[in-house]
Write a structure and sequence with these properties.
Layout: E1 14-18, H1 22-33, E2 37-41, H2 47-52, E3 58-61, E4 75-78, H3 83-96, E5 99-102, E6 115-119, E7 122-126, H4 133-146, H5 151-167, H6 172-184, H7 187-192, H8 196-207
Parallel strand pairs: 1-2, 1-4, 2-3, 4-5
Antiparallel strand pairs: 6-7
Helix pairs in contact: 5-6
Length: about 230
Amino acid sequence: MTFYPALLDLKDRLVLLVGGGRVASRKLASLLAAGARVRLVSPELAPETRELTGDPKVELFSRGFEPADLEGAWLVVCATSDEALNRAVAAAGEQAGVFVNVVDVPPLCSFIVPAVVRRGELTVAVSTGGASPAAARRLRQRLDDEFGPEWGPYLAVLRAARARLTALGRPAAENRPVFYQLVDSELFERVAASDAAGVEAVLARELGPGFSLAELGLSAGDLAPEGRPPK
């Protein structure tokens, strides 16, 4: 099956989560991290799941699933080992016109969740189209090693530089090559080394005056991933 890849903005949008076990706890954590409001329906909760229900964005119903639970939901995630319940949730979602993911049961899914590597604003998603979630996880582990924590501050610098350059009001066609020059420069290596002076030098050379870290709203400390002290 061929899926259409997309990244969803779930901030303050309602997601129905059916299930309360350990898998559900991981799904709940990722949904909350995305800013979603979560309606959690399950008669029982694993300790890991219960710890997360204190979040004000979680609406807990300690009972079995009912089709009316889909009201107002943008998405449904079903994380149970009950085959009959999984089918019921998938059918209810289909009838309501809401996308449903039944964890590890691709035939019941109208959307699937890829294996993901995150580094700040960098998101690398891997999917095998449901053919092998295990293979997708192994690929994710490889990417996890390849894309280090320096990508977080690197993209923070690029975002700030792009916003400031765009605010100058120059034509997009004029800015485009400058963006590529910056990406193709040694900026990444300077950020990876937490070399604030080196970053300043690259910004000055590629963008000119007005693009120092301070003028971009950043500091040397922002270049240090995971608490590593800046140089």
